[in-house]
Amino acid sequence: MGTALLRYTAAAGTDKGLKRLSNQDAVEYSVEQGIYVLCDGMGGAAAGEVASSMAVEETMRRFIEREPGTPALQAAEAAIHGANQAVFNRSQRERKLRGMGTTLVAIFVDGQRAWVLNIGDSRCYLMRRRQLQQVSLDHSLVDEQVREGRMSPAEALHSPYRNVITRALGTEKNVTPDVFEVEPEPGDLFLLCSDGLTREVDDRVIEDTLHLELPLRELCDRLIAAANSAGGRDNITCLLVRAG
Questions:
Q1: What is the CATH number for 112?
Q2: Is residue 12 part of a domain?
Q3: How many angstroms separate the CA atoms of 179 and 115, rounded?
Q4: 50-75: pLDDT as tens digits
């Protein structure tokens, strides 16, 4: 059962991988404020980097500066909505940034409860009692077809449409994140990650890695190293949050 006495620790790591010239992922968190955010940008030139960094900064700022007494989930949704507007508006003002966008996955913690919010295909996993489960659902063409029974998981792995996401932050005036409520337990370990990890490393390897009794930062480094060993074809970012 969750408890208001839970204390959290966190660590993050990011790497541009072996094939990309720049890192369009962004990650930031505040244990004290109960917010953890990871974004994976997309867009030509530096637009993806702009979108992801703006989304992280705006979400963090708006949540932390919320009016006292505002329920955490309401503040989280408002922060993401504000971040979407900020990214979209800038893309409309600056031609070189036109069409930029980003995925977003975030955890917001308040007392006995936590909420996972996501847009796109960056993921949240929960390791509980040594078993890994995916909390978020990918907003991608192939994953939605798998959930609808129109494509098998094996077919999805090799589909030429694996990179097509169906929802992103900043590409349209309004976007709605999925929301998942979790009641954290002592020992829970959350993993937020970009698809640079999950495209290269399957869930079994992620689970085996998280079983290791290592500091959180070292676990992040192990996951990144595994993705690079498997090809490192994209930027790789991991954020681990432990409830204790």
A1: 3.60.40.10
A2: yes
A3: 7
A4: 999 999 999 999 999 999 999 999 99
